[in-house]
């Protein structure tokens, strides 16, 4: 019996931004701003820069320098595509069709569209079971050459 699958409609590659920054960038800037506030408060509590307490001045400098810096630093589409191609290279799926009845195996071997869909995903292997008397349900030669066989 084949598994029934339903498509999942979501785009995992969607880029969500606010002011050109992704969530990770905003969290980094928030942590850097908090660090600047603490440094200014504890180490430069009696100093002022342009009539601002040093902790507020450092906070503003982190934001004024950090926001454009993070926007410029974001990877380009070309780099993202290169990374995506690299990930796809080691995430190639393998389909294992487990067959315990000969009729089921022969029915699947006649269904070329199903086999080609499996091969489009990656590799396709047929796992051949045994009947009640312990005989194999098929010979490995009966399975097409583009598919593998596990006995």
Give structural notes:
With 151 residues, this protein is of the alpha/beta class. The chain folds into 2 domains: 52 residues, no CATH class; 59 residues. Helices cover 49% and strands 13% of the residues. It is built from 5 helices and 5 strands; from the N terminus they run αββααβααββ. The protein has a 3-stranded parallel β-sheet. A hairpin with a 2-residue loop joins β1 and β2. It is rod-shaped. The protein starts with 22 loop residues before the first helix and ends with a strand. The model has no long low-confidence stretch (mean pLDDT 77).
| Structural class based on helices, strands and sheet pairing | alpha/beta
| Spans of at least 5 consecutive residues with low confidence | none
Helix count, DSSP H or I runs of 4 or more residues? 5
Q: What fraction of residues sit in β-strands?
A: 5-15%
Mean of pLDDT: 77
Give the SSE map:
Layout: H1 23-43, E1 48-49, E2 52-53, H2 54-73, H3 77-90, E3 94-99, H4 102-110, H5 112-121, E4 123-128, E5 148-150
Parallel strand pairs: 3-4, 4-5
Antiparallel strand pairs: 1-2
């Amino acid at each position: 019996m084949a598994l029934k699958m339903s498509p999942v409609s979501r785009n995992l590659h969607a880029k969500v931004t606010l002011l050109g920054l992704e969530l990770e960038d905003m969290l980094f800037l928030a942590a850097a701003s908090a660090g600047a506030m603490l440094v200014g408060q504890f180490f430069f509590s009696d100093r002022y820069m342009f009539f601002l307490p040093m902790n507020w001045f450092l906070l503003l400098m982190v934001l004024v320098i950090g926001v454009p810096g993070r926007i410029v630093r974001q990877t380009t589409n070309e780099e993202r595509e290169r990374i995506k191609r690299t990930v796809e290279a080691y995430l190639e799926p393998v389909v294992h069709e487990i067959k315990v009845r000969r009729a089921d195996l022969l029915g699947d071997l006649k269904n070329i569209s199903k086999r080609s869909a499996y091969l489009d995903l990656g590799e396709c292997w047929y796992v051949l079971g045994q009947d009640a008397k312990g005989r194999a349900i098929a010979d490995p030669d009966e399975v097409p050459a583009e598919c593998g066989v596990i006995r």
